[in-house]
Amino acid sequence: MEQEVVRLRQAHPRWGGRKIRRRLQDLGFEAVPQASTVTDILHRHNLILPADSAMSQPWKRFEHEQPNVLWQMDFKGHFETLEKERCSPLTVLDDHSRFSILLRACGPTDTATVQTGLREAFGHYGLPLRINTDNGSPWGAPGSPGQLTELAVWLIRLGIRISYSRPYHPQTNGKDERFHRTLKAEVLNGRSFATQQHVQQELDRWRTVYNCERPHEAIGMDTPISRYRPSPRAYPSILPEPEYGPDDVVLRVKANGQLRFEGQHLRVSKALYG
Predict the structure, then answer these.
(1) How many CB atoms lie within 10 A of CB 34?
(2) Which helix (H) or strand (E) holds 153?
(3) Burial 237-263 (b: 16+ CB within 10 A, else e)
(4) Cα(257)–Cα(255) distance, rounded to whole angstroms?
(5) Residue 89 shares a structural domain with residue 222
(6) Nearest C-alpha neighbor of 91 from the set 105, 78, 79, 81
(7) Same domain (yes/no): 164, 108
(8) With CB atoms counted within 10 Å of each terminal CB, which end of the chain scores lower, N or C?
(9) Which residues are in the Integrase catalytic domain (predicted)?
């Protein structure tokens, strides 16, 4: 048993006693020792550093009761590959299960890049009810607070609510922020990657471990995949047209965001052009 503890720690250097104990149970081992005993084994083999203990505090946050009620989305801070490619991982996380919906190595961080990633995610897992992001580009319009962006309009037409973290309060998107910390600790720290393709290979490998093998403390040491199921709301092949009520006044918006209503010239988001 001690050899298995050491083997798992060497394979996953950031896993502590509780995660290793649960993984041994999931693998079918009998008479698995308590987490404290597993931790003692790690200490005995000099496999725990002071920094590991400092990061072991549990992360507690409100969570939704069902998967796909809320997804959290953001870009991880960028870094360069050895070929000087800029890489910013796009992450999408299910709030209830902590299941990694999307983990994609990206160069640009624009609307088209996000839409490409989300189309892939929607095709595999269906549509969530709501997506939460921060207020920066391309999610929000930092220069025009309250204005809808092209990305927001696209999501609304798909029947997805979009919400934004409070300014200067990134903890509103806390589960995805915590996911970024784990990604950094278990994949990115102290490593160099030759190309963006190399990054994606490592992200794909780790995402499988994270979703299917790694016990998650915030969900009772279950694995994210054990709590996740795809959404029954399928991604439509054709973007639905907006629906209007019988008493709604439909106005045409110019490319510069201007419209005319009751003799007045008004300006709205350019994303509403049409």
Answers:
(1) 11
(2) helix 150-157
(3) eeeeeeeeeeeeeeeebeeebebeeee
(4) 5
(5) yes
(6) 105
(7) yes
(8) C
(9) 63-232
Which ranges constitute the DSSP H helices of 47-142?
Answer: 50-54, 111-125
Number of domains in the chain: 3
Instruction: Give me the DSSP letters along 117-139.
Output: HHHHHHHHH---SEEEE-SSTTT
Written as tens digits, the pLDDT of the chain (274 aa) is 888 888 888 788 778 888 888 888 888 887 788 878 878 787 777 776 554 544 444 444 566 789 999 999 999 999 999 999 999 999 999 999 999 999 999 999 999 999 999 999 999 999 999 999 988 888 877 666 667 889 999 999 999 999 988 665 555 578 888 999 999 999 999 999 999 999 999 999 999 999 999 998 888 899 999 999 999 999 999 988 888 788 888 888 888 878 888 878 887 777 777 6
Residue 63 in any domain: the answer is no
Place of tokens 């496999």: 47
- Domain-located, residue 107: yes
Instruction: Say which residue the tokens 């780790």 belong to.
Output: 206
Identity (one letter) of the amino acid at 202?
Answer: E
DSSP 216: B
| Best CA proximity match to 59, nearest among 24, 101, 94, 98 | 98
Q: Which of the 8 DSSP states describes residue 1?
A: -
What is d(CA 159, CA 163) in angstroms, rounded to the nearest whole number? 13
Range of the structural domain that residue 272 is part of: 245-274
43 three-class SS: helix
Residue position matching structure tokens 């996380």 = 93
Kindly tell me the sign of the dihedral angle through the C-alpha atoms of 206, 207, 213, 215: positive
* 145 to 35, 254, 269: CA distances (angstroms): 48, 20, 11
Which residue, 27, 3, 11, is CA-closest to 223? 27
* CATH number of the domain residue 186 falls in: 3.30.420.10
